[in-house]
Design brief:
InterPro entries: AA-Vitamin_Transporters, EamA_dom, EmrE-like
Distance between the termini: 23 Å
Order of helices and strands: HHHHHHHHHHHH
Largest sheet: none
Subcellular location: Membrane
Mean pLDDT: 80
Membrane topology: Multi-pass membrane protein
Keywords: Membrane, Transmembrane, Transmembrane helix
Number of strands: 0
Structural class: mainly alpha
Low-confidence stretches: 1-30
Family: Belongs to the EamA transporter family.
């Protein structure tokens, strides 16, 4: 990892200000609302993602690759309009930037959806959810490898909090059952879920959350379209039903456009270690969405798991 820029020595007045307790308190008070905003944005993004599990059940009969291509095409069009209206200053991606963006799109968007469907053919949703719920632990361990700031959370505290979030998420999801091949695919889903955050960390300072979201979404569309044509031919697309249309609109707009922007904003503000704790909101919101749609009613173990998840998130954010 490259060394950071050398720090220039402080002037006498700057040294006095940095040593002033009142200045330190003022800086802390200024940072707290900003941190709270990042936490709220990340939790909302993960809640939208958790609720999408119940929505995705509405499009299980639609051609997979064609449906994903439609979803990301609509989101990419919205991103393009927003980028144009924002009139952002031009940024020239390097070869390394394009490689990271392509890898991020391939793993976090394309392969993620393919592996999810493959895992569900060999295991149940509870097992898949329990494996993917390990994401906070992965980000807590791998986060320092991709961050270059000197101000990192205390690793032991964050690891302990991530362990609580993972344990609580497993209680909410249940453990389920499945074959060894299903577990392998679930682990691949976990890897893609983690890379969706880790690969974005070095890109966010240069491109910002809007450009990163727009680039990775646009890259996914032609890949999915070509893959759909190769596997399903013209059958990759058909006129969706009313329920499928509503589900695709949710997956395109609130999830892809809204949640991507919110998550990358929180990731840039909190860092992958602390932001990863908020992934615990996924099983909590999925449980709440299932109850709201009448699919299932949470029991005592699920409610206890929610309490453990909340305790882990609070501990990691407050002390980390």
């Amino acid at each position: 990892m490259a060394a950071g820029p050398a720090l220039a020595p402080l002037a006498p007045a700057e040294r006095a200000a940095s040593a002033d307790p009142a200045a330190l308190v003022a800086g802390s008070l200024t940072a707290r609302p900003r941190t709270a905003r990042y936490v709220a944005q990340g939790a909302l993004a993960m809640s939208i993602l958790g609720a999408s599990t119940a929505v995705s059940a509405r499009i299980t009969d639609y051609p997979v690759l064609g449906g994903q291509a439609l979803r990301y095409a609509l989101a990419a069009a919205v991103f393009a309009v927003v980028v144009r209206r924002r009139r952002l200053p031009p940024v020239r991606p390097t070869v390394r930037d394009w490689l990271l963006l392509a890898l991020l799109s391939a793993t976090g968007l394309i392969l993620f959806n393919i592996f999810v469907l493959a895992a569900l053919r060999h295991t149940d949703a509870a097992t898949l959810g329990s494996v993917v719920a390990c994401s906070p632990l992965v980000l807590a361990v791998a986060g320092p490898l991709v961050t270059r700031t000197g101000h990192r959370p205390r690793r032991g505290v964050v690891l302990g909090a991530a362990g609580l979030v993972v344990a609580g998420s497993a209680m909410v999801q249940g453990f389920g059952h499945g074959s060894a091949l299903g577990i392998v695919f679930a682990v691949l889903v976990l890897a893609c879920e983690s890379l969706f955050s880790l690969l974005a960390v070095p890109l966010l300072p240069k491109f910002g959350e809007l450009r990163v979201s727009a680039y990775v979404t646009a890259v996914a569309v032609p890949v999915l379209a070509l893959a759909g044509l190769a596997t399903d031919g013209t059958a990759m697309l058909r006129v969706p039903t009313a329920a499928e249309t509503a589900a695709m609109l949710y997956l395109s707009l609130p999830l892809t456009v809204g949640a991507f922007l919110l998550w990358y904003r929180a990731l840039g503000g909190l860092g992958p270690q602390r932001a990863g704790l908020l992934i615990g909101a996924v099983p909590v919101s999925a449980c709440a969405a299932s109850a709201a749609l009448g699919v299932g009613t949470p029991g005592i173990p699920q409610l206890a798991g929610v309490a453990v998840v909340v305790a882990g998130i609070i501990t990691g954010l407050a002390r980390g």
